[in-house]
Amino acid sequence: MLKKQTVFFVQTADVWTTFSSAELYRCGLQPADACMDSGFFYVTNHGVSEEFLDKVFAESKKFFDLPLKEKMKLLRNEKHRGYTPVLDELLDPANQIHGDHKEGFYIGIELPEDDPEAQRTFYGPNLWPNSDILPGWRETMEKYHQQALEVVKKIARLIAISLDLDADFFEQPEMLGKPIAVLRLLHYEGQVSDPSKGIYGAGAHSDYGLITLLATDRVSGLQICKDKDAEPRVWESVEPLKGAFVVNLGDMLERWSNCIYRSTLHRVLGNGQERYSIPYFVEPSHDCVVECLPTCHSKQNPPKFPPIKCETYLLQRYQDTHADLSTYNKP
């Protein structure tokens, strides 16, 4: 069942540069309703120019336009950097007959191989296209990675305030002081989805971490389901909004907030048009223990989840949803 449109909070207050105490508290209360209702909202006045976003999308398209043989030279590695082919990811095995009809490219925080931190599961050097083939591509993506992280940190301040925490709560070293931040370019080739046959652009899932910052082109397809236990599920469209990011909350924030805030099921249905999107996934550090926040539990509402280390949770989710690398014959 599908509703045509849903209403989300749209952040329009320009608080990104001043961050006075009064502004933070005023704006921190605004996203709370959206976080509790759907876990999705739009953000505008975020500081990333439309011109630069257009350039990032144009560079993304250049990569996906390369021959498959060239893209497979950058097949994702064990640190989840690089290219993911069509059908590589299976997000909803109970309802999908095969993997998602999308291809992608993972870009994490860049660390040289000789950096001791590069040995961590989700850190290390990235895989990059040859600069002779795609000149300036790496520089564009690194610049966007940095800008997107700054936007997420500002959103995290508003979320902290809305949970009665100090504004800089999520900026602690074990959280966003040393984050796992992954930029993912996505391309949906134009396959028509058919849920009755188990065919999806992206199967129903919730995101794994803290906050996802999503940039989309002007092609529809993203849908959310606020009540995953409903029968039948009711899906609502999240329409593209020019100049805005879509923000959705991840599983870790739901655990932290003791289910006060939602990590909502979402999916993508292809409608025959090519579609490009750029999610930016931000999680806390590898060693951060995610457990119920002190402001989110009481005798009447005890913690619903046991503590879990971020690295442990993410690794399991990636293993559950991606094809085994041994199934590919890398050129």
Overview of the molecule:
With 331 residues, the protein is an alpha+beta fold. It has one domain (2-327): B-lactam Antibiotic, Isopenicillin N Synthase, Chain (Jelly Rolls, Sandwich). It has helices at 21-37, 50-64, 68-72, 137-162, 173-177, 251-256, 310-321; strands at residues 2-3, 10-11, 40-43, 82-84, 103-107, 180-188, 202-205, 211-216, 222-225, 235-237, 245-249, 265-268, 275-283, 289-290, 308-309. The strands form 3 sheets. An 8-stranded mixed sheet has the order 2-3-11-8-13-6-5-4. Strands 1-10-9-12-7 form a 5-stranded mixed sheet, with no helix packed on it. Strand 2, helix 1 and strand 3 (40-43) form a beta-alpha-beta unit. It is globular, with a radius of gyration of 19 Å. The relative contact order is 0.19.
Main traits of this protein?
five-stranded mixed sheet; alpha+beta; 331 residues; disordered N terminus; eight-stranded mixed sheet; Jelly Rolls; globular; 7 helices
Can you name the CATH architecture?
A: Sandwich
The tally of strands reads 15
Question: What share of the residues does DSSP label as strand, in percent?
Answer: 15-25%
Counted by DSSP, the helix tally is: 7
Q: At the fourth CATH level, what is the homologous superfamily?
A: B-lactam Antibiotic, Isopenicillin N Synthase, Chain
Overall, the morphology is: globular
Can you describe this structure in just a few lines?
With 331 residues, the chain is an alpha+beta fold.
Layout of secondary structure:
Elements: E1 2-3, E2 10-11, H1 21-37, E3 40-43, H2 50-64, H3 68-72, E4 82-84, E5 103-107, H4 137-162, H5 173-177, E6 180-188, E7 202-205, E8 211-216, E9 222-225, E10 235-237, E11 245-249, H6 251-256, E12 265-268, E13 275-283, E14 289-290, E15 308-309, H7 310-321
Parallel strand pairs: 1-10, 2-3
Antiparallel strand pairs: 3-11, 4-5, 5-6, 6-13, 7-12, 8-11, 8-13, 9-10, 9-12, 14-15
Helix pairs in contact: 1-4, 2-4
